[in-house]
Every structure is written in structure tokens, then in C-alpha cells.
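Table S2 (continued). Query chain:
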Amino acid sequence: MARPLPPRPAAPANKEELLEEFQALVRDTETLLQHSAGLVGEQAEELRAQIRDSLGRARTTLKNTEETVVQRGRAVAGATEDYVQTHPWQTIGIAAGIGILIGMLISRR
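Corresponding output:
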């Protein structure tokens, strides 16, 4: 019997959300760098701290996304392994069919 997929942890739900998050990070960083041109001393330190915070958020988002992808990959690998264990002949048939198709495509060239 196949294992059910685990619930998804909190991370950007899709590519669009992740892309929006990084575009916002880039915009914020560009704005901060533009404002930093004439700053010295305490103002410059504050700006650098804001940039570090922005980059920290990006790292956290990447880490959450990486964990989500790894968990999904493990779940898919486990489900595939369960299927192969419970349906060995169907798996052999599917693999043979794919091999034949690939062989036919290669021989046409």
C-alpha cells in the first residue's frame, strides 16, 4: 500500500510566490543601496543592518523551500518504492515499454 504524502510545511506555495518574494528582496536591496551613497557613520551602519536583515529573510525563505522540496522528494521516492514492492511485474512492464520507446526514438535518428 502506498504511503500518503506528508502535509506541506509553511513555505512559499508555488513558484510565483517565491519569485515575488525574491523580486521584493531585490527591490528593497536596490533601494537601500541607492540611499547609502551619501551616508556615513551611524546612518551607514543602520542601512547595512537593514540589508543584512533583507538577506537573512531571503536565506530563510530559501531554506524553507529547500526543506519542502527535500520532503516532497523523499515522499515521492517512498511512494515509488512502495509501488515497486507491491507491483513488481507492472513496474517491469512499464520500464520495458519506456525502453522500447526510447530505443525507437534513438533508431530514427
